Amino acid sequence: MKEMCEIRAIVRPNRLPLLREALRAIPNFPGLTLTKAEGFTAPAGVGRRSVREELTDYTPKILITVLAEVAMVEEIRRTIIMICSTGQFGDGLVWTLPIGTMHRIRNGSDMLADNPDGSSPGEQPPA
Q: Cα-flanking dihedrals φ and ψ of residue 17, to 5°?
């Protein structure tokens, strides 16, 4: 049974082209999913603001999701940090989550099984 993790990162949109290039250079990189997001940080020293400012101070971000085998997680995580770090507040976050189950929607096959197509050893996978 394969061990897989979900890697999530919230990054600045302007870092995406460099990040995409760096991740594609990793051998057998499995691909990623992007979600447009908005957020804010609350660094110490921010003074009291009006309600209007509180409701409109969101900064555009990108949420990246990668599903990868455990052996690849550290390299992917390091790449995200190296490429997306500017040293400023709001650079983002990266974290990992273990994956307990993962099934292909097309045919319901267990993607963590030794045979992710759902076939038994020696059996032809479903067409």
A: -60, -45
Separation between Cα atoms, residue 30 and residue 13, nearest integer Å: 21
Burial class of residue 4 in the structure, from the number of CB atoms within 10 Å of its CB (0-12 exposed, 13-18 middle, 19+ buried): buried
73-95 per-position pLDDT tens digit: 999 999 999 999 999 988 999 99
Q: CB 25: neighbour CB atoms within 10 A?
A: 9
Gap between the Cα atoms of 34 and 49, Å rounded: 32
pTM over 0.90: no
Burial class (CB in 10 A: 0-12, 13-18, 19+), 90: middle
Chain-centroid distance, C-alpha 36 = 12
